[in-house]
Design a protein that fits this description.
By secondary structure, this protein is of the alpha/beta class. 45% of the residues lie in helices and 14% in strands. The chain has 16 helices and 12 strands. Strands 1, 2, 3, 4, 5, 6, 7, 8, 11 and 12 form a 10-stranded mixed β-sheet that branches. Strands 9-10 form a two-stranded antiparallel ribbon. A hairpin with an 8-residue loop joins strand 6 and strand 7.
Length: 420
């Protein structure tokens, strides 16, 4: 690797990001893509959320994108979806709608940055006809018990004949006291699986949605909650065994959920996806591939064709971030140290200490080197910074990159934050 050549190529190709107008560079590069994947290098950086929001507004207004799908739980995201679409009996205000994001890490979606964007979506949808309103959906797999509860509640309210199947499936999970670890151990090692029950429920709800003629998004919600139950059961069973299988179950689930939502929106539907870089940046351009791991970015490119997909990575040189020191731990505002020498973020900084945008030209050899690229999770230890870098080929992992030289922590909606 010749770091000087890479810095020179960044200088040649980068566009300074000084205002929202500079996002024109990405909007134009998106072209006719039907899937725009917007990443983030952490789940707790304000600029990643606000820039993605501005890009999403432009894509919705100027290119007719249909919905946003995020790395979040289906039930809580669907509560927000109902609010921004002005559904009867939805939350009275955006803050109340965000209260459903009550499973740790709550700050990922219950934050002021999302509240502002949700208000924009609410206003945007106000005068749009049903079927043309922009939706907000969760793709993740963690909400097994919440999803089962939502299915039972909706089927009870509508007097659905699938209620007994749903209750039977839910009762199978009840002995595990909503503890996925306990269920995973029992299913993986003691053959006490609930797989048959949730697969039967999903099959019945798929059939029901195909014949639904009204409130079909509610039928979609039942189906997606059942899909969560099926794949969460598989995920927790695989998780206790270790290895890449649980990761792959999760990302394949997110890809399948995205496909079902897109199909629901009909011919010409266009999707915006918000997830961590590790999910939207093509896994084949990282060391994940050698470990047998796939991700959403790879799957969507393979299934839809790379020409229909535009992936944007995000990163920062230094700043602050919201995270925790252990799973389920207290929310902390932590320092993000300066990027390590010769990492992707360091080279972007060396070109100039300002925000910038790169649209990759894969004919440029300088962006085809393997470089360390920072990834911060919801659990973060700044003192072990070197372990947070993923070997990546930037121009193969993404179609474009947004770099924030000095970033700041996002603002959780209601939780106390410890400052480190």
């Amino acid at each position: 690797m010749n770091s000087g050549n890479i810095v020179a190529e960044i200088r040649k190709r980068a566009v300074r990001l000084s205002s929202d107008d500079d996002l024109d560079t990405i909007i134009q590069a998106v072209g006719d893509a039907d899937y725009v994947l917007l990443g983030e290098a952490s789940h707790g950086t304000s600029e990643f959320y606000t820039i993605r929001a501005e890009l999403s507004k432009r894509l919705i207004r100027e290119k007719g994108f249909s919905f946003i799908a995020v790395e979040g739980d289906w039930p809580s995201c669907y509560t927000l979806n109902r609010y921004i679409k002005h559904y009867p009996d939805s939350a009275d205000n955006v803050r109340d709608a965000l209260l459903d994001f009550n499973r740790w890490p709550t700050w990922m979606w219950a934050n002021l940055e999302i509240m502002d964007f949700a208000e924009w979506l609410y206003e945007h949808n106000q005068d749009r006809a049903d079927g043309r309103q922009v939706g907000f959906y969760g793709l993740d797999v963690y909400s097994l018990w919440e999803s089962m509860s939502e299915i039972v509640k909706h089927l009870e309210n509508t007097g659905s004949p699938e209620l007994e199947t749903a209750k039977k499936a839910f009762s199978c999970f009840e002995p595990y006291s909503r503890d996925p670890q306990t269920y995973g151990v029992s299913a993986a090692f003691l053959s006490e699986s609930c797989e048959d029950e949730v697969v039967k429920l999903l099959t019945e709800l798929q059939t029901k949605r195909k014949r639904a003629d009204q409130d079909s998004e509610a039928a979609l919600s039942d189906e997606l909650n059942a899909l969560v139950a099926v794949n969460a059961e598989r995920y927790y069973r695989a998780m206790v065994r270790g290895g890449p299988e649980s990761w792959n179950i999760r990302d394949r689930h997110m890809g399948e959920a995205l496909n079902r939502i897109t199909t629901f929106h009909g011919t010409g539907a266009k999707a915006i996806v918000w997830e961590h870089n590790t999910h939207i940046g093509d896994a084949r351009a990282t060391d994940m591939a050698a470990d047998g791991m796939v991700n959403v970015g790879q799957l969507v490119r393979e299934e839809q064709g790379a020409h229909r997909v535009f992936a944007v990575g995000f990163g920062t040189h230094r700043g602050t971030v919201i995270a925790a020191t252990e799973w389920g731990g207290e929310i902390r505002e932590m320092p993000v140290p300066e990027a390590v020498s010769d990492s992707w973020e360091d080279l972007l900084h060396r070109e100039g200490a300002h925000d910038k945008i790169l649209v990759f030209d894969r004919k440029s050899d300088e962006f085809l080197d393997t470089l360390g690229h920072r990834a911060i999770g919801v659990v973060y230890h700044p003192q072990y910074e070197r372990g947070n870098y993923v070997p990546s080929i930037p121009a193969m992992r993404y179609d474009a990159f947004v770099y924030v030289d000095e970033s700041k922590a996002l603002a959780p909606l209601r939780q106390a934050v410890l400052h480190v």
